[in-house]
Amino acid sequence: MAPLILVTGANGYIASRVVPRLLQAGYRVRVLAREPLRLAGRSWLPSVEVVEGSTRDAASLNQALQGVDTAYYLIHNMASGRGYVEVEKESARRFAAAAEQAGLKHIIYLGGLADPKAPNLAPHMRSRIETGEILRRGRVPVTEFRAGVIVGAGSISFEMIRFLTECFPIMPGPTWLRNQSQPIAAANVIDYLMAGLQRPQARGGIYEMGGPDRMPYADTMLRYAQFRGLKRWLFMLPGIPISIMARFVDWLTPVPFPIATALVGGLQSDSIVLVDSARRMFPEINPISYAVALQTAMQDLLPERLERVWEGFGRDVVKTKHEGFLIDYRRLEVQASPSAVYANLIHVGGRDGWPYANWLWRLRGWIDRLFSPHDAPKNLQRGDNPRGSGEASDSAHRGIAIGERVDYYRVEALEPGTLIRLHSELHAPGEGWMEWNVRPAAQGAILTQTAFFAPRGLAGFAYWLLLSPLHQLVFRGLIRAIKRRSEAG
């Protein structure tokens, strides 16, 4: 039987990337999560065993460690706010003791990249290093990896870079932004974590991970701006309080204030590789450049690439920022069969009109054509041929097909009876999608409606913000109208 691997911090970014790699490699996987319901949007959830709990709960921790060969310690407590450093230390002590008692063979820990001797080392970075030291005091061998800025869609450090750079044409920042960093691609971090599992001779070592490019923190944003074709100017101001910067991060990015406070404070020291032990121990891993890492992260700026984490929030309406998107998600129970709901979805828009505020949808298309008459779609009816031409055909009765036009949307994805996703062809400072998903429920069906918008620059965020009151009205009315039509047969 394949070894059983425990992944802690299952709701976190790195854990969500490690789990599918472990499954792909043939391991059995168990995850420890404080809030298992938040895993609902993870594609790998049906393939793993889930234990609800945390390192603070001895019973759940012991349950999670039973029969485990190796555990990934991917826990941090920055979201706890003030006092999180002591919480992290105590968490590591409890885990090390429980792992020893359970007979664990190996712990793999991901910590922070910094010089432990730096005089101005931030509390966040010091706690990451001290956590590794506490784990190593136990009898279970520990392989510790250290990383700084991780470049990948969903990484909190990358999302800070992405959202702040997109929003600010002129960016003030602390003088700490001159400190050096060595960003590493998320894919390479996972490569190292997997290699640590498969290489026994690496146990007991500390491995500092970094990409081939060394740059000031400021350049991580300026190079992102260059990649996106955005003109950005950054200037340094001494004495900017960490709390003020963290408030801006909390407001503009998906990173909440307590975590932003810790991460911004971490900029006070360099985050670079001082000992090249990772390259020597794992020569088969060739870290990719920052430019390639950016390109790879931006290729994930598509709805089908997202982990639907908001589905685990347990709410019927969610407005969130996630992996470069601004998202409006809504869910309703419908007292009708899934097929009846889907039958209404395939007739949304086009000749049949929109079931709610149809005049607004038409007006938006008309405005688009007015200002961009040469680029706008010539035909605003459902379908290009033959339906768009007004000719009757069998396809007009079957619904829609991939690539077909629905007003100013293009059908991008279609799973008959289950899913429809439309890609907007409107002229806007960003890209938009509208998606509906239908699944069976005890009393009929669950209908979800998700609007995705990937803003480009400050104009994109302003566009979404200014239209938010209208979106609130139209999106809410649209899903309710589909529900009414479906229940009315």
Keywords:
alpha/beta, 489 residues, 7-stranded parallel β-sheet, globular, 38% helix, 2 domains, 20 strands, single chain, 22% strand, Rossmann fold, 7-stranded antiparallel β-sheet, Alpha-D-Glucose-1,6-Bisphosphate, Chain A, domain 4, 15 helices
Walk me through this protein's architecture.
It is a single chain. The protein folds into two domains: 76-299, Rossmann fold; 313-488, 2-Layer Sandwich (Alpha-D-Glucose-1,6-Bisphosphate, Chain A, domain 4), CATH 3.30.530. It starts with a strand and ends with a helix. The protein contains 15 helices and 20 strands. By secondary structure, the protein is of the alpha/beta class. The chain has a seven-stranded parallel β-sheet with strand order 3-2-1-4-5-6-11, sandwiched between helices. A seven-stranded antiparallel β-sheet has the order 14-15-20-19-18-17-16. A two-stranded parallel ribbon has the order 7-10. Residues 376-398 have low confidence and may be disordered. It is 38% helix and 22% strand. It has helices spanning 13-24, 58-65, 84-102, 123-137, 156-167, 186-198, 217-228, 242-252, 257-265, 277-281, 290-299, 338-345, 358-371, 395-398, 457-488, and strands spanning 4-8, 28-33, 49-52, 70-73, 106-112, 142-147, 150-151, 170-173, 180-181, 184-185, 206-208, 215-216, 233-236, 317-322, 325-334, 405-406, 409-415, 419-424, 430-441, 444-455.
